[in-house]
Amino acid sequence: MPRRVHRILTIRQVLEGAVLTDQARLYWCADGSLLEVESNASLIVYGDERVIQVTLRDVGQIRRSYLAHYDVLTGLPNRQLFIERLGKAVVQAQRNRRSVAVVFLDLDRFKLVNDALGNQVGDALLRAAAGRLTAAVRESDAVCRLGGDEFGLLLDNLSGAAEAESLAQKILDDLEAPFQLEGHELFLTASIGITVCPADGDDAEELIKHADTAMYHAKEQGRNNWQFYRASLNAAVSERLSLENALRKALERRELLVYYQPQVEIGSEKIVGAEALLRWRHPELGLITPERFIHLAEESGLILPIGEWVLREACAQNMLWRSRGLPTLRVAVNLSARQFHQPGLEEKVAQVLEETGLDANCLELELTESLLMQDAPAAVRTLGKLREMGVHLGVDDFGTGYSSLSYLKRFPIDRLKIDQSFVRDIGRDPDAGSIAEAVIALAHSLRMKAVAEGVEDEEQLTYLCSLNCDEVQGYFFSRPLPAELLEEFVRNYERKRLFPRSRVEKLWFRD
After folding, report:
1. H/E segment holding residue 240
2. 107/191 Cα distance (integer angstroms)
3. CA pair distance 373, 380, nearest whole angstrom
4. Looking at residue 319, what DSSP letter applies?
């Protein structure tokens, strides 16, 4: 029996699921180690003698076992226990000639919650998400937390892949309902990858790798969807890793460029602004657009230094245009979700304006509709601070997200940009024209300007003019141009007043 020196600690259910009571104590052992035990004492009477019987139980072993196999935050099995159970499930499935599905799930843009609202809210969201996942699966299935915002599901004893597909869709549906946490209303989506044994392999590690590959493919497909593994994805993953590694070096190697697409005010027929658009001159692949690499920048965190570089580059370029005699232009810079939610955004913007000397009135920050609604109350505060600085604010791709009109009227927005998918179908799809008309009317009712992007022909421009749209941009006027060609285009436009372009000599600049 170890000799008790003194009471060091009283444990009160410090781990969820561990059976510990107020009687748990720490004891010194003869070898100098500590033994955590639970003691229970009872009085036994033998005639005139009274004996106290003490029973000791090693509860430290319970703690160690729990920590080794369970996630403390959510109470779910961890990766190690998941792998052990998967190995057993694979053997059982082979014996019974049934299927096992491995499902990997990643919460989309979860890091934004931690960045904007803190780890306490993030942890609460993880626990709430874990609860919904557990409620969605069968009793025979297993849900684990793989780490961070990734979860794994083991679907045992399936008749085929259709059951896994049905469950994946059910999970997406269950996550759609908003989470009410710590006074915040949060929306959550997930990217899901699915692999099935024995069709995709019969080794636990191999199945996990395949599920992870399928999950990243779901992210590349726009998030909030599920994808099955297929062998061809391996090549895509290899290309993705190669591209991400190259992107890490692109900024220091000065491979990133900013192109500009002019924005034309319909009423005055003048160029009033230009949208800054990122390009990457890859040493092997040539000039590539953000659609191919921006998601890698967001997932890896590179979007923060890259985004700050684009902001500084666009502001400096605008000042250079002004020094070269161009009319005053407003340069529009897109902000990613991670940029918008990073602490001290207003200070960073103010610092860039001070360093470049650009007036805040010549800068517009564009944000997506869905970004603003991730945490609308916080967005109202941040936008208010930016607006007080004099910076213009615009909502990009309006009509593709899920706006709350009660919040939209509280946002100090200057411009709503009609998504180009609606502009593209004007004249062919009556619904697209109706949506464009509704967005323009909404913008004007809220004292905002409406901007149509993706204008490619005179029919679209004429239609937008009839709806009193305020500004337009698109290939009808010019594709995105390098800074020096944008300057040349503005000078030619101001001299010849090309509006609309099809009625006079066409100017066309190639990338």
Report:
1. helix 233-250
2. 7
3. 10
4. H
